[in-house]
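INTERNAL TRANSFER SHEET
From: sequence group
To: structure group
Subject: Conjugative relaxase-like TrwC/TraI family protein

Please process the attached sequence and return the structure record in the designated field. Keep the field labels unchanged so the import script can parse them.
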Amino acid sequence: MAYVTAIYGGSAEQIDYRLGLTQHGCDSDVQFRYHADGRERPLRWIGRGLPEFGLDGLTAGAELTTEQHDLARSLMAGKHPVTGEQLVAPKLAVPADAKVPLGPLVAAAQALAAERGLDDPVDMFAKPKQRSAFNTAVRAVARRGDAALLRVDDALALAETAGLEAEQVWPDVDLLATYSNLYEPQAVVDEAGKPELDENGQPKIELTPRRVPVGIVGFDIGITLPKSASLLLAFLPDDLVAQVEASYTAAIERTFGWVEGRTSYVRRGKHGDGHAARQEQTAGFAGWVMTHRAARPVGDAAVGDPHWHVHITIANMAKAPDGTWLTVAAGGRDLMRHAPAIDKVTQAQVRAFLHNQLGITFTRSARTGVWEVAQIPDEAIRYFSKRGQQVSAVLQQLGYSNADVSAAEARILTRESRSAKSETTAASDATLRGLWRADAVRGGLDPDTLMDRVLTAYRSGMTTGPVEANHELEARFGISLDDLVAKLTDPEHGLTAHARRFSHLDAVAAVADALPHGAEIEDVERLTDLALAHPAFQALPTAGVDQALAGPGAHTQLAGAHQMSGGTLYTTKDVTAAERTILAAATAASDPTADVQDRARVPAATVDLALGVVETAQGFPLSAEQRDVLHRVVTNGRAVEAVEGPPGTGKTTLMRAARVAWEAAGYKVAGAATAAVAAQNLAAESGIVSRTVAQWLWRIDNRDGFAGIDVLVLDEANLTSDRDRAKLYTAAAEAGTKIVEVGDPQQLRGVGVGSMFGYLHQLLGGARLTDNRRQRQADERNALAAFRDGRHAEALHTWARLGELVATETSDEAVAAMVSTWLRLREGAPDPHALTAGLLMLAATNEQVARINEATQAVRQARGELGDSANLRLPGGRETRFHVGDLVLIRRNDRHQQAVTGDMVLNGYRGVVTAVTGEGVEVAWRDPAADTEAEPSRAVLSPGYIAQGGLELGYALTAHKAEGLTVSGQWERPDGTRNDGSVLVYGPGMDNPGLYVSLSRDKGQAMLFGARAELEGEREELFYGPPRNQQELTDRVIAALAERAAATADNANDRPVLVDLAQAPADPTGTGTVSGTGTTAETVAPVPSAPVPEPVRPPDFTEPAPTAQPDRSQPRSRPGREPVTVTDEQRQQWQDLVRRSVAARVADDRDTYRALQAQRRDLTAQLGPERVEVLRAESHQKAMQTLEQRRERQIQERLERLRLEAQWQNRPHSRLTDTQLTHAIRDTERRQAREVAAAEQARRQLSEREQAVAAGRGPRVTQLDSELHRLRVNAERQGTLEEIERRWQHARTQAADAAERAARKEIDAERTRWWQPGRREQLQAEAAADRALQERAHAEVAELARYAAELQQQLGGPGAWRQARPQLERAEATYVQDRQRAHDTDQHELTRLGERIASYDTAALDAGTRREELLTERQLRDAMPDTQRTLERQLRIQETLKQRQQTLDHATLERQPEPSLQADVEYHQRTLHTDIHQDIERGGPSL
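Return from structure group:
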């Protein structure tokens, strides 16, 4: 895996974290937090741009030492690491607490414009810049609602220009505090960093603009090798490990150099609006690389699993040819789009080395799709992937899969699952390898056996040697050119499996991933060029191509990618062939002179008769719109027809009438849909016998295709892939079948190359239905219409106004709210089948759906609503428990009951579990075609069927599974409300079509749930800060959802590549739009993924402080009018009404506020517009004067506070609390006494030792003589042991000889004849004597062994006693020299003792000096004013809180905070708040 993460802001914690110094809590660095531990390997500099700084040691490959950390920090701050010069200015923004919401300003301006009779509020602004600023504010509010913010000075300037009173526009905003947040007083410092003093000796203070960094300061490139590569480093023999790791490092360096050469460019000039910036190559990147060997430990493990990976941190700047420094890689986008190629190319190089040098082979993992060492089994890889499994589990709990992480990496919080890296992780390679080996044994694995298998070819001498480039590709790379091209063009898994277009960079990554033996970068690029030259590929022109989005499951091409490195676009010839087939049929159908204009033509009179029959049968008439479309479709006789209709416009009803008309004219009608349930719904609701598209394609390939079929209705045609569409069109042309496509290009697309439905509809000039009759609420219908028209924020605000949008901070809160709402809305449902028909939850991903399903099941189980259960295995090794009463979703078709027993089951049925038996799970469901009173269908699903993915919980579905559904079940709830069909939608992760489909499934109500943590990232947090209230939280959730919807509204993948090749019209209608989306033909690409908007700022507005304010005490001069006078009574009335209105609004007293507004309107009518204008001007001037006075007063208070703070900071002991100061004085006195006592004791020791050393009897000499005496005693003992050894050997020999003689004589005695009794007795007596001698000899052996063991123990053990005499000889040989060295050491220690005496004396003196300083500090505090004493106490508390909070933040990364520490912090926070409150009451300085 490889990824590129932008580093925003560049705080000290972020950079130190990447230097391995700290573990900060930045939520956006989810992936890096998982990996970082700078202790494992030394940091190394990297990048060709390093020599540009002209510093020795700052070169690629050199170690980044501790002393160079400041150089790295400067580099990431955009500064020259040596001179400190700012090379690239950081991007700064006004902080969120210095901004006000724009919504109240726009609303107030619109109300005032209406009061003045103006059609457009912008007419209140005379200057073009002011008009432009207000229009920008209106657009921002439309996009982000009250989440749209503007810096307060610009907002006040707009309000003043419009004649609005700021206090009434923002009654609940502290304008003074917000205005003051624009600036921060700072002490002026000199070059040494010390405060400069004025003529009075006080610190100089200046006000500076307050800004926060928000730009990208650098990038973190993470590269991880497959797990089997890490296991090689853990278990290979020692002589190969260094060589293999060196190859990994070399592969990383070569990949980085390759990426550096492609992306380290800078851009100059304007880019966009038809202009292309000029690219210039640079000297290269500059940064450092961090290498890790292990993953984080899981649980109580001493060390993490083997996990070799690197992190490369580079600065976002490079040196251009003219010497200037600019940001790189098109804002980093080009670098980010290289991430997949970085991964594949690095792995290919590693495979090439391991295969060529060690003969190791590779195979793709069936589980992960990654190339792994063939001889390492998957169970070993899974066993050593504990952390990965833990992270996957956390992601799944949050509703994401591993494939979703890159899209949600700043939002998914896996931090809580981390264990801190232990000190063992920083151990030596040998220690880690030993721990891993022991872990493998515990897991039932034999590392030696594994490595024997891996190195079989290497040890037999069969490694692959170098092969020339012209040799057969299969021998070198493990794949032939034909096979490589076949892989790349495979319709199911190739480069155009999910997109019409792919880039050269995509091809490089795919080629690298397709090589079993891997390859070097140069070989991968050559193979890519060779493959793309094959006739199966087609290069596309880049002119006019802005963006090419892909279909579901495909890699997305970034906007402007064709202008980046490796951005040339291609397609495959089968795509162009399919498009030609489709367009040829559509073009012929749209040509009135063609010979295909008489297919299934129905006379108009027959159509009218069919209409009467249909309307009578269904009990309601067709609309005029439906009648017109019906006549057009069935009477024109065209071979291809297309009907577009948004959700709820009656497309299926229309097809029912069309079927009756066609059948009345004698034609046979059939239907097709992508999903089995959709096909069944088409059959049930329209009466058209239908099959899935896959079934029709099988009939085309294996049977008679469309023979006998006159009309084929292709329902939900936007889900049909064009490869399938081309086959359908070809078969229809052969059979003479008319194809009628019905769908909506703004709904979901199917998985495949893309769908041209929208393009075809325009090319054919197809009919369109527009009248939505599904939703019962007019507001919901209007909201869906606004969403479809691109007014996404307006639509979402409508749902919020209806109380149908729930915004939360975290995903847990959103899921909990969603489940709680489901439980409330389902009350009163008569049975589970009504519940499945009337209430549905939807989400974007399978993982989110699983999370919601499991949460709902858990709540129902806790309530005791579920019955018996069984734990059944699902695909991928997962398990799920199904209970009786659970709502479930059937996922696999089984028409022939091969794995089920009972009624036929189809993919997409929702039902309820009615029984759990040993044979499987019994499920009941209501057939869509059946009457609501009919008996439900039933089937028992076998465990094997479920294990193949046939069943899952069905409380929630993905949006993709919901297209075509209408949720309309009805019941009365106990609270008196009625359910007419409700849909609950989990918004995060939804694109535009998914959100549109989800919100349009209901008849009664749709509710949307969103969590800000999943919708916003680090950059939004920097711009806007945390939400200040629930309304702002809701507005920001709406803004994020709206921006995502706008960014994914159009899909250029639905545009034919023949348009790029100028072989098809870009605008098939001639109106300048494509696909019904409103996109112009000149810019057919969709809106690119929208970046986070900059804070709205009117152009060229100056700061109000230095700008002269206009005189508002007189009315604006108007030609031909006399000056207007205002009496004091009128002025008093007006001011009293304004004051009371503001007070009522602040108190949220709406009745009083409305009454006062009525009085104000009456007074306005009484006074006339001229006097009102004068009064408004006076009120505004007075407010601004008051605001300015308060601002000046607060600035003076802040300046005084800063002066006192500077004095406080300059005192050495000012940060000590009074208690700490008392303790410090006491401790200093004790320390002084302790140092004096230590000095006296050292003097006594010096006096005692001097005489002994002078006489040559110092401690070291005495110790040497004692050691020599000990060696002499040991030598004597060695002699004794040698004698014992000789006697021991003699006794052993004597015992052996006696035993042998006794045994021989005992045998002879046994063999003596019976007539020789005397001889037998003599031999037996001699044998007994020999046995007695043997026993005595054995006893002597044992005694000698015991004695020898005692002596050996005294000499250091069995192996050491023989060294006693040699040790004595060596000691005596060097005694003279050793004695001289010992004497020198004694003299040196005397010198050191004297130095210690001096040190003790100095320490005692320092303690005395510190005691005097502390006493002076106490006297100063006793004499200072109460105000200053209170301020300093508050400063000390703040400092303590800051330090303890840092300690607490660090502790939470390793473990839960200690209760005592947490309680202490909370206590100090309460104390601080109390002190501030009391201080303000006393009139002292305010914090």
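Handover comment: Residues 574-768 form a domain with the Rossmann fold fold (CATH 3.40.50.300). The chain has a mean pLDDT of 81.
Transfer complete.
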